[in-house]
Amino acid sequence: MHRSKEHPANRSITSESPASATSSSPAPPSPGSSDFLQLNLDDAPAGGRSDWLAQELRRAIADGRLPVGSRLPATRTLAADLRVSRGVVTEAYQRLTEDGQLAGRGRGGTIVVAAPVTAAATTTTGATPGAGRAPVPFAAPPGPEIFDELRSAPARIDLSPGVPDLAAFPRAAWLRAERAVLADLPSADFGYGDPRGTVALRRAVANWLARNRGIRADPDEVVIVVGTVQALGLIAQVLHRDGIPEIAVEDPGSLGARQHLQHWRMATPPVPVDDDGIRVDALRASGARAVLLTPAHQFPTGVVLGGARRRELMRWAADGGLIVEDDYDAEHRYDRAPVPALRSLLPEQVCYAGSVSKLLAPALRVGWLLPPRKYRKALVDAKRFADLGNAALPQLVLARLMESGELERRLRLLRRRHRRRRDAMIAAIRDRLPDATVHGAAAGLHLTLTFGRDGYRGSDTDLAAAALAHGVKVHPLSWHSQRPAPPGLVLGYAARTPDEITQGVAVVGEVLSGG
């Protein structure tokens, strides 16, 4: 066979003629580039690559792309990306180290430790007077960002309600459970899963609710959600599409829950609460077809929905009403018997929501929803299109903790600890706020204070603002009321030590007395 007749497509690279092989020289390697700061060696002068790199690093530190604490790539890695010798990168790093902007931390790498004064000034002051300062939470009626503002406000003692003892998070138990889960987890389980949640956690939640809340539910009925707030959002969307434009709420009742419902275009007509819970006669008069309740420990008053009110509410639901049950603080009880969940009595008229935010930590963002049959498919669809389902690994770890009994052990521990802290707050209130009336002491993680007919008659937001100015965070009761109401405060105790609680209440007492 004559090679000259071979089709070009079948010719190997060694079949080129010597002439063609020698006539073309290899192309020079193209200059390197890096994802880090989008560095491109094309921008560097031929004889000053270290100078160029040092200048680029200084510029990134000055304009904030490399803030203090940032770690730079290893010299070997960056040199390989840029296709330069390692010495070029080492020299650039060394120059900034001599300037005091970088520091080597051994295996921790090279870290930015200082920025030019001009950079710090532009990032902290800005062009507008007061820009960058923490907002004042009580300067205006609470808006959507109010809880973010309050969390960011500096304070010596935080008595905000709704915060568990974050220092008590069971790190060792969580780590053991996570390692066990990862050791046994099939590779396929790292893929997309059921939007309702993992089978393991849905089963664990069904068992937990049967043991602790008297609710009988099949795991297939459980939908795992990103906390109770996502449950409220999904419910609002589904009900709105079903022609229900409003969900009645307790008054006083949670400002946060009300804000989330309103975000999803739900009206939230207020229904008064008295010593027996929500007034069902007022609920009927409102004309609302759905209502959000915290029957086990009403927020913020702490009252329990009484037996007669439960029967009256059941009759309202039998006439076509839907109850959204937020089982708020149900596990945290000290001086009273457990209260049955409404869901255990009315499975087809109650949409039940719960979470581990108060039992473990809000940062886990894990809760559950038990919809009635009528809305189950629509709520699963809403969850699917919201996020395809919660992250699987935390679900599996939580399921292991629940099924092992670790969560019950933790609950018993927390009840003892919370009781001591509650008792410390009650004692401090008696000592420093003797004219205040305490509400909701039998359960929960907070106390509500009111001041009686002859007590404090000013604005409770002014009182909360003055307390914050003295280093103590509290909630004004008026935040959680839609109708005019007497002034009051809502104080959380779960996250503070008895000494901190005593000091915090003393500050409130001094502010109230004008001291």
Write a brief caption for the model.
This protein has 515 residues and is of the alpha/beta class. The protein contains 17 helices and 19 strands. Helix 10 (255-263) links the parallel strand 8 and strand 9.
List the helices and strands and how they pair.
Blueprint: H1 18-23, E1 33-34, E2 39-40, H2 49-62, E3 71-72, H3 75-82, H4 86-99, E4 102-104, E5 110-112, H5 117-124, H6 146-152, E6 157-158, H7 171-184, H8 199-212, E7 223-225, H9 227-241, E8 248-251, H10 255-263, E9 270-274, E10 277-278, H11 280-286, E11 290-293, H12 307-318, E12 322-326, E13 350-355, E14 367-370, H13 373-387, H14 392-404, H15 406-432, E15 437-439, E16 446-450, H16 460-469, E17 472-473, E18 475-476, E19 488-492, H17 498-512
Parallel strand pairs: 6-17, 8-9, 8-11, 11-12, 12-13
Antiparallel strand pairs: 1-2, 3-5, 4-5, 7-14, 9-10, 13-14, 15-16, 16-19, 18-19
Helix pairs in contact: 2-4, 3-4, 7-14, 8-14, 9-10, 9-13, 15-17, 16-17
Query: In angstroms, what is the radius of gyration?
Result: 31 Å
| Tally of strands | 19
Structural class based on helices, strands and sheet pairing: alpha/beta
Q: How many angstroms does the end-to-end distance come to?
A: 109 Å
Query: Helicity level, as a percent range?
Result: 40-55%
Largest sheet: 8 strands, mixed
Which strand order do you get reading across the main beta sheet? 7-14-13-12-11-8-9-10
Beta-strand content: 5-15%
Report what the structure shows.
- There is one protein chain.
- Residues 1-29 and 118-134 have low confidence and may be disordered.
- Helices cover 40% and strands 12% of the residues.
- It has helices spanning 18-23, 49-62, 75-82, 86-99, 117-124, 146-152, 171-184, 199-212, 227-241, 255-263, 280-286, 307-318, 373-387, 392-404, 406-432, 460-469, 498-512, and strands at 33-34, 39-40, 71-72, 102-104, 110-112, 157-158, 223-225, 248-251, 270-274, 277-278, 290-293, 322-326, 350-355, 367-370, 437-439, 446-450, 472-473, 475-476, 488-492.
- Helix 9 (227-241) crosses helix 10 (255-263) and helix 15 (406-432) runs parallel beside helix 17.
- It is globular and about 90 Å long.
- The strands form 5 sheets. The chain has an 8-stranded mixed sheet with strand order 7-14-13-12-11-8-9-10, with helices on both faces.
- The chain has 17 helices and 19 strands.
- By secondary structure, the protein is of the alpha/beta class.
